[in-house]
C-alpha cells in the first residue's frame, strides 16, 4: 500500500480542507499537507508509469483537456515573466498555487479516471469535511460564549503568523464569521456548499434503486454532514458562497427531477432544521441566526451602487485588460490600480483576475476548459442514466451542480483557485468528464 499512488491521492483529498496548516514555507508559498501528499502520489505514479508503460495510452482520450490546461500553464508562466514585480504581495504564492493546481488536475484525470476511483475519491472528499465541521462548530460555540475566537488546534502548524497566529475567524459587526481550517470564511463557505450539494445528490437515490446501488456513505452520515454544513454555512456569512449554493441547489433539483411531493419533503427537512438551530442558539447562546442573515444582507444592500464594493475592482480589471489584452499585465499587475485599497492583486472575481493578469491567452483556454468540462459531465451523466448506473449518475449531478456553484460564487470573490479542496473537486469533476464508453465497459467487465 505504501507504494500505491492512489493511497497518497486519497490522503491528499482527505487533508485538502486543512488549508490553515502547513509543513514548511518557501517565501510566501506554504507546503500544505495536501501538496505534500500530492507530490508523493505523483512520484509513485511516475514509478508506476515507468513500470507499466501501457498506462500511457490512456492519455489519448484527454487531448482537449491537456491542450487547454497546457495553454493555461504557459499563460501562467508567461505572466511571471511579464509581471511588473513578482515579489509584490503574494504574487509568487498565487502563481505556485495555480501551477500546482492545474498540474494536479492533469495528473488526476490521466492517472485516475476510473469509476471505482472516482467513487472512492467522492467518499474521501465527503469524509474530509468531518474535521473542518468539528472545528467550525467549536469556533461558533466558543465565540458566542467568550466573544473571541479560540486558537486553532495544533496551531504551531498554522500558516497564520503574527499577532493572530492560530486564532482563525473574523468578526463582522457583532457577528462571528467562522473559517474553521480554512484561511477565509468565503473559502469555507464554498467548501460547505460542495459538501451539501454532493450529499443531497447521493441522498436522491431511493427505493429499489438505492438497494441495488452500493452506498458511498450511509444516509444518516450524509444527513449529519448536510445539517452541520448548512448551519456553519450561515455562520460564514459569505454571500458569494450562499449565491453559489442557491444556484447549485436549483440545478441539482432540476437534474434529479424531484416531483412536487419530494421537493416539499426536502424543503420540510431543511426549514425545521434552520428554525430548531435558531431556537437553540437563541435560547442557549443568545444568538439569532435568522436576524444575523438579515443584517448581513441589508448592510450589503446599502452598497448596491458600488456593486457591493466590487466596482473599483471591476474597473481595475478592465483597465488592466485594456492595457495588455493579449498576454495580460502579469502577476501583481493589478496593484497599479488597486494597491491603495487592497494588499492582494485580485479583482475579487476569479475569472476577471485571470483576464487581467493572463490576458486572452489565459482567459480563453480557461473558459474553454470549464465549458468543455461542464458539457462533458452532463453527457457522461446522461450515459450513466441510460445505462442504469444510478450511483454514477447521481455523482455526475453533484459534480456538475458543485462546479457551476463554484463558478457562480467566484464571480463575486476570487475563491475557486485559492484553496486546495477546490482543486480536488475540479480534478474529480475532470476525471468524471473524460470517462469514455470504452473505458466504462472495461470498468464494468
How would you describe what is shown here?
The protein is mainly alpha-helical and 445 residues long. 67% of the residues lie in helices and 3% in strands. It is built from 18 helices and four strands. The two termini are 24 Å apart. About 2% of the residues have low confidence.
List the defining traits of the structure above.
445 residues, mainly alpha, two-stranded antiparallel ribbon, two-stranded antiparallel sheet, 18 helices, 67% helix
Topology record:
Layout: H1 5-15, E1 24-26, E2 29-31, H2 33-51, H3 63-82, H4 91-111, H5 115-127, H6 130-146, E3 170-172, E4 175-177, H7 185-203, H8 207-212, H9 219-236, H10 239-256, H11 260-285, H12 289-301, H13 311-323, H14 335-338, H15 350-387, H16 390-409, H17 420-433, H18 437-444
Antiparallel strand pairs: 1-2, 3-4
Give helix % range.
55-70%
Shape type: globular
- Tell me, rounded to a whole number, the average pLDDT: 79
End-to-end distance: 24 Å
Strands, total number: 4
Order of helices and strands: HEEHHHHHEEHHHHHHHHHHHH
User: How does the major sheet shape up?
Assistant: 2 strands, antiparallel
Using only CA atoms, what is the Rg?
22 Å
Poorly predicted regions are: 53-60
Alpha-beta classification: mainly alpha
Q: Record the strand order, biggest sheet.
A: 1-2
Amino acid at each position: 500500500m505504501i507504494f500505491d499512488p492512489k493511497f497518497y491521492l486519497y490522503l491528499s483529498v482527505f487533508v485538502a480542507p486543512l488549508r490553515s496548516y502547513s509543513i514548511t514555507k518557501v517565501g510566501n508559498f506554504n507546503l500544505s499537507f495536501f501538496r505534500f501528499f500530492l507530490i508523493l502520489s505523483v512520484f509513485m505514479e511516475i514509478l508506476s508509469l515507468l513500470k507499466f508503460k501501457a498506462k500511457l495510452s490512456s492519455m489519448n482520450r484527454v487531448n482537449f483537456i491537456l491542450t487547454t490546461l497546457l495553454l493555461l500553464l504557459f499563460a501562467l508562466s508567461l505572466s511571471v515573466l511579464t509581471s511588473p514585480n513578482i515579489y509584490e504581495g503574494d504574487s509568487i504564492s498565487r502563481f505556485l498555487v495555480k501551477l500546482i493546481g492545474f498540474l494536479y488536475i492533469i495528473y488526476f484525470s490521466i492517472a485516475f479516471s476510473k469509476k471505482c476511483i472516482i467513487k472512492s475519491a467522492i467518499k474521501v472528499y465527503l469524509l474530509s469535511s468531518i474535521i473542518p465541521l468539528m472545528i467550525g462548530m467549536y469556533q461558533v460555540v466558543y465565540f458566542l460564549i467568550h466573544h473571541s475566537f479560540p486558537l486553532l488546534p495544533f496551531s504551531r502548524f498554522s500558516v497564520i503568523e503574527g499577532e493572530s497566529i492560530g486564532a482563525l475567524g473574523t468578526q463582522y459587526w457583532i457577528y462571528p464569521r467562522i473559517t474553521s481550517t480554512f484561511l477565509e470564511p468565503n473559502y469555507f463557505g464554498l467548501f460547505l456548499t460542495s459538501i451539501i450539494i454532493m450529499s443531497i445528490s447521493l441522498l436522491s437515490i431511493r427505493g429499489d434503486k438505492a438497494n441495488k446501488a452500493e452506498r458511498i456513505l450511509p444516509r444518516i452520515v450524509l444527513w449529519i454532514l448536510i445539517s452541520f454544513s448548512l448551519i456553519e454555512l450561515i455562520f460564514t456569512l459569505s454571500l458569494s458562497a450562499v449565491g453559489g449554493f442557491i444556484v447549485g441547489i436549483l440545478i441539482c433539483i432540476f437534474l434529479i427531477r424531484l416531483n412536487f411531493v419530494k421537493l416539499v419533503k426536502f424543503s420540510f427537512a431543511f426549514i425545521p432544521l434552520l428554525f430548531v438551530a435558531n431556537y437553540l442558539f437563541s435560547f442557549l447562546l443568545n444568538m439569532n441566526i435568522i436576524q444575523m442573515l438579515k443584517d448581513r444582507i441589508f448592510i450589503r444592500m446599502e452598497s448596491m451602487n458600488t456593486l457591493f464594493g466590487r466596482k473599483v475592482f471591476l474597473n481595475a480589471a478592465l483597465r488592466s485588460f485594456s492595457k495588455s489584452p493579449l498576454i495580460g499585465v502579469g502577476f501583481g499587475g493589478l496593484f497599479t490600480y488597486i494597491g491603495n485599497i487592497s494588499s492582494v492583486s485580485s479583482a475579487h472575481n476569479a475569472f476577471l483576475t485571470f483576464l487581467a493578469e493572463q490576458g486572452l491567452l489565459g482567459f480563453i483556454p480557461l473558459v474553454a476548459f470549464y465549458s468543455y468540462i461542464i458539457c462533458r459531465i452532463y453527457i457522461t451523466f446522461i450515459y450513466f442514466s441510460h445505462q442504469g448506473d444510478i450511483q454514477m449518475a447521481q455523482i455526475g449531478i453533484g459534480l456538475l451542480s458543485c462546479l457551476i456553484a463554484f463558478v457562480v460564487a467566484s464571480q463575486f470573490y476570487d475563491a475557486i483557485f485559492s484553496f486546495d479542496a477546490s482543486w480536488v473537486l475540479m480534478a474529480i469533476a475532470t476525471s468524471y468528464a473524460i470517462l469514455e464508453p470504452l473505458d466504462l465497459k472495461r470498468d464494468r467487465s
